[in-house]
Amino acid sequence: MAEIRYLATNPRRYEWIVEGDIKACFDEIDHTALMGRVRGRIADKRVLDLVKAFLKAGIFGEDRQFQETNAGTPQGSILSPLLSNVALTVLDEHIAQRPGGPGTSPGVKAGRLRRGLPNFKLVRYADDWCLMIRGGQPDAVTLRDEIAGVLLSTMGLRLSPDKTLITHIDEGVDFLGWRIQRHRKKGTNRHFIYTYPAKKSLKAVMAKVKKLCRQVEVNQPLDELIRRLNQAVRGWCAYFRPGVSSATFAYLSHYLWQRVWRWLRSKHRRSTWKELRRQYCGGGWWPRGQRELFDPETLGTTRYRYRGSIIPSPWPAA
């Protein structure tokens, strides 16, 4: 997220974004092509045989029938995330080697911009990726089609036509649960890039809170409900803490309070608000038992620190 924000701000202005979505990434990777890339790093035939055995292990379907796996990396296999990353290095290498990519010198990039040619950089996390482009929308369309051809010809992977979108930073992008968009700062005419939890992510955690309040029966103690809610909400807030998330946390805090109080009212239908506050809130309004309900609104936010390419890789160049 720090990389996307850094590239989109002045003076870099990589403002057009191809939001990539690979259709059934884990299911359609070509085994022959994938093993070819693995052999480029590993010479030990015993390790290669073990990797191939993981790929060919097969899966049990929902109908309890065994299915062979002639393509893809079976989800649930401990090697699947690593092997899918290995497969998608074809995309990294293609972008890195292409003129206008991250391997291009600053002088050449400036010359390309003067000639109306685009510069671009790939930001990828596993099979989720964004191609940041300094250029125009036609450049983004051309690069999207080019990437689709590279993935299909090398790894047998296809881009989802419905989910692979081309958007401008002013319209906003949803990536890894975040919303990143350029807005005008209130009270000024200046525009800044903001990152905050996407609406879809907020709806997901609210649905989880609602589900937990229904799963925990009212005949159980409040501590059990608080324990399960804290586990879910605290982890979600920790993930979205490095952003402009204070307003979202405040909204979630109110929703959490509302659902817990509804649960307490169902548990004690004949008790008054004053009696419930005395019993469960110590006379206040925030629920607590032996442990206190986590309040997202009290969690301070931070910012991702952009580190660029200064993080050294432990692996030698291939």
Automatic annotation (TrEMBL):
InterPro entries: DNA/RNA_pol_sf, GrpII_Intron_Splice-Mob/Def, Mat_intron_G2, RT_dom. It comes from the Bacteria. Residues 1-180 form the Reverse transcriptase domain. SUPFAM superfamilies: DNA/RNA polymerases. Pfam families: GIIM, RVT_1. This is Reverse transcriptase domain-containing protein. It comes from Virgisporangium aurantiacum.
